[in-house]
Amino acid sequence: MATFAIADVAPEDRSESNRARTFYIETFGCQMNVHDSEKVIGTLEHQGYTRVETEEAADLILYNTCSIRDKAEQKVFNRLNDYKSLHKQGKRFAVLGCVAQQEGERIFERAPFVSIVSGSASYNRLPEMLAQLQQGTKRITGLDDRQTEETFETEFTARSNPHRGYITIIEGCDKFCAYCVVPYTRGKERSRSSTSVLAEARRMADSGYTEIQLLGQNVNSYHDLEGKKSFAELLAAVGEIPGIRRVRFTTSHPRDFTRDIVQAIDAVPSLCDHVHLPVQSGSSHVLKLMQREYTREQYMERVAWIKGARRTISMTTDIIVGFPGETATDFEQTIDLLAEVEYDGVFGFKYSPRPNTPALTMPDSIPDKEKSLRLQVLLDRQRETQRRNYARHIGDVLEVMVEGYNTSRRQIVGRTSQNKTVNFTTEQPILPAQGSYLSVRITQSFPNSLVGEAV
Ligand code: 5AD
Ligand code: SF4
Fold this sequence. Notes:
The chain has 455 residues and is α/β, with parallel strands linked by helices. The protein has 13 helices and 19 strands. It has four domains: 143 residues, Rossmann fold; 112 residues, 2-Layer Sandwich (Transcription Regulator spoIIAA); 109 residues, Transcription Regulator spoIIAA; 58 residues, CATH 2.40.50.140. The chain is 31% helix and 22% strand. Strand 3, helix 2 and strand 4 form a beta-alpha-beta unit.
């Protein structure tokens, strides 16, 4: 039997159709998934569901999944395995997101107790799917693949943070990098109109948000439906909304990254001085195999634009090691590129073969042990670069947005415009509120964080 979570419903109202239902959701993967979940939560709440904190307390258990690497994909199957016995108590399971779209109806074969399988390109149909579930339909699918023209926009987004929030500007991806599942799991590229994005940003500013992060698998290929604004213009327009103090964006694709983005950052103070520009490899040979559509030289040209800005713009990147055909010399070129760019952060990954992707047909030629070794070398070198980069901030006074508190060490945790974490103390008797902005003098540094005192 399903549980009845809300006690103040009169007994006669507790029929299957109108009693309150509860849901639990767990999110895996990227910021796009985190934000999709915020929209899913808002949609479910609007449908009369109440969110609970455990699988056991829920009538409906949702997993919003990621399939970027095999390890991420396995997480949802582990969860389903751990909690499948709850199905016997009448609880229903929904698998959403990238594994859902990738595996489709095969999920029902592996986990026959699952009721809903839906990729992100079908979330517009969630209310309908929930209605079918309530009517007792056993298996419901939303698998739009690369057909849909729609974006998932809802006024019911349940943002988890009242100060900084995401806005999707473009969904899907048309890039087809040889290793990547995303074009197959999130559908084709669909941009929102700048009018709709700006209206959402203004609503957020009106309700107290000061930081906005624009999201997309490839924000640089944003194409305004109304033809009004380029990506750089949209970025600037969001940054000019009264009340908005920080604007970030992710993810960029070097091929589509244009110089006017750097000019916008220089011109509009609220645009954060940080660019995440995934390079994946420092070898033009590997970049070609990866079908990245740029060479090392073209990437370094973008880096030169960014480094040539009037403001000091922090850079971070993603690297894949052990892509099929990556030689020791190719890998050396990646290490060499990291030393040249001096990133403030690197997300390094071992290549993981993914279903449907072109690279799947290339022999996964590098043994796992060698991939691990390359990753370790890369992370060790990068740590030293970051140690030096972060140490350069000692003595700086940086503006920090308060994110939380580290009670054990009586520190306040905040973030700079460059997206660096600062742990700091204050002499004020009252701790600054979450979401407030303070000036902090940096006194100490680590490879991943700064330490300081509020001034
Ligand atoms: N194997 C390893 N890493 C991958 N990424 C994407 N696909 C794969 C894969 N098949 C990495 C890329 C991307 C980041 C989000 O994940 O570096 O930028
Ligand atoms: Fe994972 Fe990529 Fe899907 Fe994000 S878009 S959830 S990183 S597979």
